[in-house]
Design goal:
The complex is a heterodimer of chains A (about 190) and B (about 270). Chain A has one domain (about 10-185). In chain A, about 70% of the residues lie in helices and about 0% in strands. Chain A contains eight helices and no strands. In chain A, helix 4 packs across helix 5 (about 95-100). The termini of chain A are close together. Chain B has about 270 residues and is an alpha+beta fold. Chain B has two domains: about 35-95, Electron transport complex subunit B, putative Fe-S cluster (3-methyladenine DNA Glycosylase II, Chain A, domain 3); about 100-265, Alpha-Beta Plaits (2-Layer Sandwich), CATH 3.30.70.20. Helix content of chain B is about 30%, strand content about 10%. The longest helix of chain B has 28 residues, at about 5-30. Chain B starts with a helix and ends with a strand. Classes of the chains: A mainly alpha (about 190), B alpha+beta (about 270). Chains A and B meet through helix 3, helix 4 and helix 5 of A and helix 1 of B.
């Protein structure tokens, strides 16, 4: 039950994108088409889950025993960068069209602050190993949810008659803001 | 040196080494064989990943060039030099591509289009006119004659004729498409210079309304579509031409009552 709550908390109540405003770059950048948005969400979810596993292990097995907690940022970034490289190779091998659709945003998962944020939150909140995995899964699911909703709205938005000053990034950010407002309705439902 | 520093160096070095090793193995296992030409073409591209060519980035453009899906001259940022370099790699002639030219698909000028009761006194700009439902002309689809395209053209290749309809000077036109973007009514379209048949009207009104608002509007009768073997399809009182199927000897141009569909030479 506890694990499920952690998952739900990360996915909906404390959604990384819409409640913490982390990872806005791919959220805006890859949300113009639903299919690539979902794939981006999947790739990010994968990186997040594996990151939560590996960073927990590194932090608790290496950094704490050697009193090297100050190295957490560097080592976490190292983990994330390597994982993203791996995911990039994997996607390129498995699906060329998907690789092309994600384009520059795939390597940019490295600099997605949502992932570093996740690794740091897990340490900060002193989650156990299993809790950390569920937290990572939940955060990824939340990111996928947010980016998919956004892509759905933006596909409709293409047909709307948007005033010229608001076209492009402006209306997208306004929509993102309204979406975040809607997600505020969940706030406080779970406090994990 | 104190011990913490040494341990820190060893730890990070070790971690880096492990991950590098993992990636090296993954690279071997997951390597995708690709055409070496793609890399060569990619190297001569500007590398800005701007998407100006319509592809998802420079690499994507390089792949499409090698596959022959886009022209070697397709990179608008690199311009002529890049086109030459790509052409050399691909072993083709850079000048061989067909030039794209803008076509103004409206001939309802001042003497043809019906005017409104009220007169427009606002700024002479198509985008402003479009906002107030189109200045003086009754047609909601046609050219406004405000000259936004003329102003947008960086090469002075567009002029407004005395009838209030812009004309393209093909010798000066580079096919950049700025006029297409400037037109709020999407009256201007880019077409290969060797195309000859166009519908010079954008009016989707029913025949009676179309006739009232403009003398040269397409009335949507479909007389051009019927003998065309599916090359022309009527969509909401306007013919849509499928150029891949078009055989212009079958199109009865003289039967079009308003001369909306015509055969012209762009160059």
């Amino acid at each position: 039950m506890e694990l499920f709550l952690i998952f739900l908390s990360a996915a909906i109540v404390n959604n990384f994108v819409l409640a913490y405003f982390l990872g806005i770059c791919p959220f805006i950048g890859v949300s113009s088409k639903l299919s690539s948005a979902v794939s981006m969400g999947m790739a990010t979810t994968f990186v997040m889950t594996i990151t939560s596993i590996v960073t927990w292990l590194i932090y608790h097995m290496i950094l704490i025993p050697f009193n090297l907690e100050f190295l957490q940022y560097v080592s976490f970034i190292l983990v994330i960068a390597s994982l993203v490289q791996f995911v990039e190779m994997f996607i390129k091998k498995v699906s060329q069209p998907l690789y092309r659709a994600l384009g520059i945003f795939l390597p940019l998962i490295t600099t997605n602050c949502a992932i570093l944020g996740l690794a740091l939150f897990i340490i900060l909140r002193e989650y156990t190993f299993i809790e950390g995995i569920f937290y990572g899964l939940g955060a990824g699911a939340g990111f996928t949810l947010a980016i998919s909703i956004m892509a759905g709205i933006r596909e409709e938005l293409d047909l709307a008659d948007v005033p010229k000053p608001f076209q492009g990034a402006a209306i997208t950010l306004i929509v993102a803001g309204i979406l975040a407002l809607a997600f505020m309705g969940f706030s406080g439902m779970i406090s994990v | 040196m104190d011990a913490t520093l040494l341990i820190a160096i060893a730890t990070m070095g070790g971690l880096g080494f492990i991950f590098a090793g993992g990636l090296a193995i993954a690279d071997k296992k997951l390597r995708v064989e690709e055409n070496p030409l793609i890399g060569k073409v990619n190297d001569v591209l500007p590398g800005a990943n701007c998407g100006g060519c319509g592809s998802a980035g420079c690499y994507d453009f390089a792949v499409k060039v090698v596959e022959g899906k886009v022209s070697v001259t397709g990179c608008p940022v690199g311009g002529e030099d890049t086109a030459k370099a790509i052409a050399e790699i691909m072993g083709v002639d850079a000048s061989g591509s067909v030039k794209m030219l803008p076509v103004v698909l409206c001939q309802g000028g001042l003497s043809e289009a019906a005017t409104k009761m009220a007169h427009y006194y606002g700024p002479i700009s198509c985008s402003a006119m479009h906002l107030v439902s189109g200045a003086n002309k009754q047609c909601y689809y046609g050219c406004l004659g405000g000259g936004d395209c003329v102003e947008a053209c960086p090469f002075d290749a567009m002029v407004m004729n005395s009838n209030g309809i812009p004309e393209v000077i093909p010798e000066l036109c580079t096919g950049c498409g700025m006029c297409v973007k400037a037109c709020p009514r999407n009256v201007i379209e880019m077409h290969p210079a060797d195309r000859e048949v166009f519908v010079f009207c954008k009016n989707h009104d029913d025949p009676k309304t179309a006739k009232d608002v403009c003398k040269v509007a397409c009335l949507g009768c479909g007389v051009c579509a019927r003998p065309s073997d599916g090359a022309i399809v009527m969509d909401d009182f306007l013919p849509i031409i499928d150029y891949s199927k078009l055989d212009d000897s079958k199109i009865p141009f003289d039967k079009c009552r308003t001369g909306a569909i015509k055969k012209v030479h762009l160059n």
